[in-house]
Amino acid sequence: MEMRQKALLIDDEAPIRKLLRTTLRQHQIEVFEAATAKEGLVQAIALRPDFILLDLGLPDRDGTEALEELRKWYRHPILVLSVRDQEEVIVAALDAGADDYLTKPFQLNELLARIRVAERHYASDKEGPVIEVHGVVIHLQERRVSRDGQAVRLTATEYDVLKVLALHAGQVLTHRQLLREIWGPNSSEHVQYLRVYVGHLRQKLERDPNNPKIIVTEPGVGYRLVSPGPVS
């Protein structure tokens, strides 16, 4: 069987690793494994995998710290798999750079779907245009945002929300559409997260966050990014 992709699984539970290894190999994904954060960081550098599945409860270091370390240089998708289901833990992992978060136990089909969504996001980033609206410039290819010529620092999830809105500039996106694009299927429980991240974006991008001109709320429906379109 020819393997099309490489995945790195960082998890100290051998049964979980075995289950995921079997499932991913059935989809032509070669799996490399690490049981500690230290080993995972070393393998990530050596292997340069196409995506990483990361547990938070590692024996030598908290997975969120490992995630932050990876995001200093690793740009491919990272999906967190964890038994921790507290809202603050999930938000912290997303803010640290996770592309998605699944709570154990999870359905394998859902995991595969979330991986596909994260990979589509990564592919669109590499080929994306540059978009400008009211002094805010979004360089989708470089994951870079500026306002009035000054760099704006966004978390990974803030950027993902902005990117989806920018790619559909001028169109109304429903809450459901945004949630599916950012967190994958079966993500209706993230509605409050979406409101929080839109609020964060407005604080960083709008001249008057209380009277937004860039990210507009469509009451009862969703959000719309007002944009004149791509710029050279």
For the structure shown, list the relevant keywords.
Arc Repressor Mutant, subunit A, elongated, alpha/beta, 5-stranded parallel β-sheet, 232 residues, 8 helices
Task: Describe the 3D structure.
This protein is an alpha/beta fold and 232 residues long. It has two domains: 5-124, Rossmann fold, CATH 3.40.50.2300; 128-225, Orthogonal Bundle (Arc Repressor Mutant, subunit A), CATH 1.10.10. 41% of the residues lie in helices and 22% in strands. It has helices at 14-25, 37-47, 63-70, 87-95, 108-127, 156-167, 175-183, 191-205; strands spanning 5-10, 29-34, 51-54, 78-82, 100-103, 130-133, 136-139, 144-147, 150-151, 172-174, 215-218, 222-225. It has a five-stranded parallel sheet with strand order 2-1-3-4-5, sandwiched between helices. The protein has a four-stranded antiparallel sheet with strand order 6-7-8-9, with no helix packed on it. A three-stranded antiparallel sheet has the order 10-12-11.
